[in-house]
Amino acid sequence: MKNTKKTFIEKDSPRSLKKMELKRLHKKLKMDLKFDPDNRKLKKEYERVNNLLKPKAKRKDIPKK
């Protein structure tokens, strides 16, 4: 019997689930902001979620050890 690798399904990983939840929350906050643009709490939360969804920039100036 050969050693078979178990296929990894990306949708089942907790990281991707978290990302999907963030996207859902981002959409919801965006809609809420459309109806109430002056709400500071919503703006702050929207910015936080938006920053979490943005891909992190790779730093080239830091040398590898």
Automatic annotation (TrEMBL):
Q: Where is the composition biased (Basic residues)?
A: 55-65
What's the domain of life for this entry?
Bacteria
Q: Which residue stretches belong to region Disordered?
A: 46-65
Q: Which named protein is this? A: Uncharacterized protein
**Native organism:** Flammeovirga aprica JL-4
